[in-house]
Every structure is written in structure tokens, then in C-alpha cells.
């Protein structure tokens, strides 16, 4: 997510943003929006991410800035993508452009945390999500059918969150007991890719996860196959989490929301492989059940939606 503004004598004369993958970058749209191009040689360009220096889906933005004789460029943060990673900055400096880097850097890094995590850690940005009762239980003991903990407003919010991420993951027990759709049917948005961990491929084929409403990847220890929108991928279960994340990285999946049960969530927590956790506390007590996963950090954000309280944690 990149935005750009061009300023001349303290007045914005151009602005643009990267509207869609493969389309023109923010700098291109901003420069194209300037009516009087002669003003560019006296202007300052502000952009939250380092202008690219390579030929990808579009030509290098650093070249466009140089060719338009823009004398000063203010950059929020450096691009860690190996094809850029300081090359755009150095190219502009070689052409005597006054380049300043690191303005509102923390905010700029946070804006594209999925992108940076993907390139820096070579895995998707991982969001853990679960709901618990007031007495800190995640589900009834020996749960045999779907159990809903939170309110309808929280459900719609979760579907909105799903629409922001590339993929959503659950384990085989959650798939069997809850029989979830893992879609965004409560809102208008794009369904994430559904990720199911099912080692022995013993889940019933009439479950909602196989319904072709969204692309689905089933990680297993038996076979590689493709049936309609369902893709079966064989992986090494001796190092399950790393095997899954390595596969998702190869498929360029930049973000993953995990809505599995306590076992799946605790596995990620115990290995320290997560970036954000969103925990709902419902206004009800279960009295007996499975204990909730525990994050040993203070939440950086707390808000209330209907009767539910949401705590958000960051793994930093």
C-alpha cells in the first residue's frame, strides 16, 4: 500500500496511490496528476515506501522521478524487497536528488507489515484469532457440534478481517466439529484461500471446506492432487509449521489468519511464530471446558463491540 503526494511552495499539486497489483505505482499516478509539469523541477515528492529501481510489472519509479527533474524526495521507509532494498535511493542520490529517508518510519512500516514480514522473514504475516468466555475457556469439553461464543457484530467483524488476508488456516478437528465455511459471506469482500491441515485425509468430503466457494489447500502426508478448487499438497509432518509456512511462501501468500482450535493456536504461540493475536472475550461463562491459549504480553489495543471485548496483541 503506497501513497504519494507532490508539493510545490507548500501546496499539494499532485497525488496518487498504487491502486492494484500490476498497475501503475503511486509515484506514476501522482506525477501524471500534476497539470503543470514545469513545476516538478521545483517540487518535493513525498512517498511512504522507497521508489522502485527495477523493471517489474511497471518501469522503475526512481527513473521517472529523475527524468522529471524532481529535486527533493521524502521517503517514509526503505523497501526490503531484494530487487529494490536501497537501490532506488542510491540511484536518485547519484543524480543529485536530495533524498531523506525515515520520516514517520514506524507508521510506514506498520502500514505494510504483511509485505515486510513476507520479504524479511520469508513467511506470511500471521494473525491468531480466537474467542474465549469470561472464565477463560475456549470451548466446551468433548465438543461434538458447532459452538458459537460471540455476538453477530463480532462475527461480521471477523468476516471483514478475513477479507483483508490472503489465507485462513484451521486444523482437522475444527473442520470436522465446526464444519466452517471460512468465507466472508456476512460482508462484501473476497474470500481468503482456505488452508486445512489434515494429515491422513480422513475428513468427510461433504464438509463445507470442499464446497468450491473458495480456493482450498489441504496439507496432508499422502498425496498431491487437484480437484476443482481443492488442492492437496503433501508435506513433511515432522516439522509441520515450518513446512506449511515454507509452502505458503512459495505460493506468495503474504498473510495468514489462524482460526483453529486451542491445539493449533498454542502450537504457533509455543514456537513464537506469530505476529498479531486478536482475542474476543464474550459476555458469558462456560463453567467447564478447554482452557484458552495465553499470550504473555500486554495488549496494545482493547475495544468493545456489543457485549464482546477484543484485545489485540503484537509479537514484537
Number of strands: 17
Percent helix, as a range, is 25-40%
The Cα radius of gyration reads 23 Å
* Euclidean distance between termini CA atoms: 22 Å
**Order of strands across the widest beta sheet?**
11-12-10-9-8-13-6-14-17-16
Parts with pLDDT < 50 across at least 5 consecutive residues: none
Mean pLDDT: 93
Percent of residues in beta strands: 25-35%
The string of secondary-structure elements, in order, is: EEHEHEHEHHEEHEHEEEEHEHEEEE
Please tell me what the overall shape is.
elongated
Main pleated-sheet profile: 10 strands, mixed
* Continuous helix count: 9
Class by helix and strand content? alpha/beta
Short note summarizing the structure:
The chain is an alpha/beta fold and 316 residues long. It contains 9 helices and 17 strands.
Question: How would you describe what is shown here?
Answer:
With 316 residues, the protein is an alpha/beta fold. Helices cover 25% and strands 28% of the residues. The protein is built from nine helices and 17 strands. The strands form three sheets. Strands 11-12-10-9-8-13-6-14-17-16 form a ten-stranded mixed sheet, sandwiched between helices. It has a five-stranded mixed sheet with strand order 2-1-3-4-5. Strands 7-15 form a two-stranded antiparallel sheet. Helix 3 (87-94) links the parallel strand 4 and strand 5. Helix 2 runs parallel beside helix 3. The radius of gyration is 23 Å and the shape is elongated. The model has no long low-confidence stretch (mean pLDDT 93).
